[in-house]
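Task card 7
Instruction: Convert sequence to structure tokens.
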Amino acid sequence: MAEAMKLELVVCIVNAGFSQVVVEAARKAGARGGSIIRGRGTANPEAEEFFGVTIQPDKEIVLTLVPSSIKDEVLKTIYQESGISKEGQGIAFTLPVERATTIRTE
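Output:
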């Protein structure tokens, strides 16, 4: 049996309206697509002070499944395009994916 490809889930949380920047950056680094979820942050004033930025409550979460071999390049490119010093003020991290499959309806 062939060994399964190792995957990582790239999770990126940005201010509302900036998810497309993340998707384009991820594609530039080799990702094929992603899913966007709308969310609402719950940061308190201490968090704003700690990070030195104004935290908007409305967020967009971009989920992108990528081969482990390109995760670092995807993270780097996302950071360059929408990191904490940019208007989108995003944060990104990865989670290992143990197993994945497609879901199809006939």
